[in-house]
Task: structure prediction
Amino acid sequence: MDMRPGRGRRGILFVFTGASGVGKGSLRAAAADALRTVIYSVSATTRARRPAETDGVDYHFLERAEFERMIARGEFLEHASYVGDLYGTPAAPVDAALAAGRDVLLEIELAGARQVKAVRSEAVMIFIAPPSLAELERRLRGRGTDSEAKIQRRLERAREEIRALREFDYLIVNDRLEEAAETLRAVIAAERARAWRVVDDEIDAFLAS
Amino acid sequence: MDMRPGRGRRGILFVFTGASGVGKGSLRAAAADALRTVIYSVSATTRARRPAETDGVDYHFLERAEFERMIARGEFLEHASYVGDLYGTPAAPVDAALAAGRDVLLEIELAGARQVKAVRSEAVMIFIAPPSLAELERRLRGRGTDSEAKIQRRLERAREEIRALREFDYLIVNDRLEEAAETLRAVIAAERARAWRVVDDEIDAFLAS
Result:
């Protein structure tokens, strides 16, 4: 039985959610070997491109009028407004990749993750948590980028998120990075081994083998 | 958030099913590192102990009267008759281990796996398949222990089992042993990371951390 993607199977949509400071980027980097075969979805935004950013890599930078037209046409899997700018995940590239049997990873915050789950119920929801709120606070202060008020808002949001844990499929605690990366690799491999993903063509091919 | 087993969580019941000759024993051996923390459930049987076998290790060897009393009392998770002897999985040691937060692995054939799922719906059902029926036939002949008629019966059973694939949670194709062992490790790790297994005490402890 040929388990390789592309044998008539759809790809898997992974959604990655976790508080600011929890180390989502480090976790993706540590599990880069497993994520090599997963397409990282690039968000769209109306905010201005920063000098270090590349259009189409960091974000798809869109004019507000264009972004609003796409909202009106239902062309986002999720979108939100943040500090006056719009952010969102265009549906078309994600759906095209899934239809071609490629797995896709979206990294989005709780409200966006809920929007995605509402329209793509088969999404595999992964929650990344810090080992404790005290440790998250330490990491946020360590970054030295946020004001005290912003740190407190981020901690409050982390509390709200953990209360939503049961809406997710998996919890990965980012305590020791290598262990967390190992769990992420395991989630990806296990989801690919889910029996319900096997298509009839594969069973027929097996019975004829 | 402390993810270690024993923090008020129940253990996970893994059920391992696959055709004779598919290499379940080799797979368990290859994934012995991951299975170190999983209790392998020992079946009970009324058949005579063979010289190389140890009571309580290979099987619990029981008198038929005792076995039948246990059936009457509903003390088996599953049981079946095979070539005149009775085989079954006593519920008590499995349930005691799960209640203590230990994970348990049962290795049973399709009919028994269905009985277990009927009474323990949370069981994680893992189906082990050969890469093809031709390869299974080659392995069965390679063992040199079965008559031609028995090989044909085993192949027919393998066909029936694969048709029941959708009753299982995971499919592990035992083509290259090391890859199959890696998938088994992933399934165990991913199931331990399932968000629904997190108990309220863990969330409360996190919010107070």
User: Anything to note?
Assistant: The first strand of chain A starts at residue 13 and ends at 18. The radius of gyration of chain A is 18 Å. Chain A has nine helices and nine strands.
